[in-house]
Amino acid sequence: MAERIFTLDDLTGTRSVCGCLACNLGSVFADHLTALRTNYPGTVTTLGHRGASPGTTAVPHFLAVRLGAGLADLVVWEEMRPQQLSAWLPAADARARVPGLAARIPRLVRIRQAMRAGTFTPSGAAGEALSTGDRYPSFRFLVEHWPTLKKEFTP
User: How far apart are CA 71 and CA 69, in angstroms?
Assistant: First the structure.
């Protein structure tokens, strides 16, 4: 699946909690995820300005937003209950990496930008998934392939 590139026009008519850019993007992205996910338990809940509730996990998602001729990588946070996290990310080892990688947003964005620019192509399954067009460097992709990416990426 190709990466969805959002534009500021996507925010037209958006109704979010406070109306700021982050909350509006969160609202648009929640609608996007809801349309994509099948058999996902519960609703997609973005965090906006609040932290994750007890017993849930804050999961970052990278949004590519077209600004003029360039792309900006912005982060929207989703709150997932344990059964949602398991449905979204079935591998237990990958789920265990989520909190640690969520704290490394700047490095993940650099990796993502290097992949998009063609200056970094990982080897193995990660590189193959990108080359076939089946995947793009989403947070989920980065979490699933972190052992390879961590070893191979040098900024």
Answer: 7
User: Which residues are CB-contacts of 144 (< 8 A; sequence separation ≥ 6)?
Assistant: 89, 91, 94
The answer to whether the CB of 149 falls within 8 A of the CB of 111 is yes
- Rounded to 5 degrees, φ, ψ at 54 are -55, 140
| Cβ-contact 29, 63 below 8 angstroms | yes
- Are the C-beta atoms of residues 99 and 80 closer than 8 Å to each other? no
Global confidence as pTM: 0.88
Residue 59 to residue 122: CA distance in whole angstroms: 23
Cβ-count burial of 71 within 10 angstroms (0-12 exposed, 13-18 middle, 19+ buried)?
A: middle
- Cα separation, 154 vs 133, in Å, equals 23
pLDDT tens track for 104-121: 999 999 999 999 899 999
